[in-house]
Design a protein that fits this description.
About 50% of the residues lie in helices and about 15% in strands. It is of the alpha+beta class. Strands 1, 2, 3, 4, 5 and 6 form a six-stranded antiparallel beta sheet that branches. β1 and β2 form a beta hairpin. α4 (about 130-140) runs antiparallel to α5.
C-alpha cells in the first residue's frame, strides 16, 4: 500500500470520527466495554493498493482470540466496478464520508448486550445456535434461557471436528454454570473480555 495517501485517509477519518482509536488496520470506539465496535481495513489479495472496509461489532464475552468480522458488513464504493484504492483520492474521500455516516449509523445500534440480542443475523435456527446469541443471553442475566440455547447448540455440533468438539465442552460448562452458579457465569464472561482486550492490546 502507498503510505502517504493512507496516512491522509487515517487522519481524515479521525477528524470525522474523533472517538475512534487506531491500532494498525483496526479503528475502534473507545472506551471499549463489552462490545468491540469498529472498522477493519484489510488489503486486497489481488492488488496491493486496494483494500476492503469492514464495519463490525464483536461481543468480547464470547471466547475468541481474533477479530471476528461476522457481525457487520463490507462497505463497497458506489461504483461497483471499483474497489477502495489508496491511490484514488476521490474514492478515499468517499470511504471516509460513508464510514462516518453509514458505518457509524450501523455501529451505534449495537452498543450494549441487549442491542446484540436484537441483531437479526445471530438469531438461532433449527441448524445453528450462534454463540453470540446464547452468550449474550448469559451476559444479560437471562441465565436459564442461555443454558437452554447453549445445550441446544451443543447438540448441533460435530464432535469429530476438533474445533466444534472444543466449543461444545466450553458451551456445556457455561450452561452448567448458568443453571447452578450465576456469579461464576459473570466471572467467566468477564475473563473472556479481559483475555481478548489484553491479547489485542485494546484500551
Amino acid at each position: 500500500m502507498k503510505i502517504t495517501p493512507l496516512k491522509l485517509f487515517f487522519a481524515d477519518l479521525k477528524v470525522r470520527c474523533p472517538e475512534l482509536r487506531q491500532k494498525k488496520a483496526l479503528f475502534y470506539f473507545t472506551p471499549v466495554d463489552r462490545i468491540l465496535r469498529g472498522i477493519y481495513l484489510d488489503s486486497s489479495r489481488w492488488n496491493g493498493s486496494e483494500f476492503n472496509v469492514n464495519i463490525f461489532f464483536q461481543p468480547l464475552y464470547v471466547p475468541s482470540e481474533n477479530i471476528n468480522l461476522t457481525n457487520g458488513f463490507r462497505l463497497m464504493p458506489y461504483d461497483k466496478s471499483k474497489n477502495w484504492d489508496v491511490g484514488d483520492s476521490i474514492l478515499l474521500k468517499e470511504a471516509v464520508e460513508r464510514i462516518a455516516t453509514e458505518g457509524l449509523d450501523f455501529l451505534n445500534k449495537y452498543k450494549c448486550v441487549e442491542d446484540v440480542l436484537m441483531y437479526p443475523h445471530i438469531q438461532p435456527t433449527p441448524i445453528s445456535v450462534p454463540q453470540d446469541f446464547s452468550y449474550s443471553l448469559a451476559a444479560s442475566g437471562r441465565y436459564l434461557e442461555a443454558a437452554n440455547y447453549l445445550e441446544c447448540g451443543a447438540k448441533l455440533l460435530d464432535v469429530t471436528i476438533e474445533w466444534q468438539k472444543a466449543r461444545k465442552l466450553v458451551d456445556l460448562e457455561l450452561a452448567s454454570l448458568c443453571k447452578n452458579n450465576h456469579s461464576l457465569v459473570d466471572i467467566r464472561l468477564k475473563s473472556y473480555e479481559h483475555v481478548y482486550k489484553s491479547g489485542q492490546q485494546l484500551s
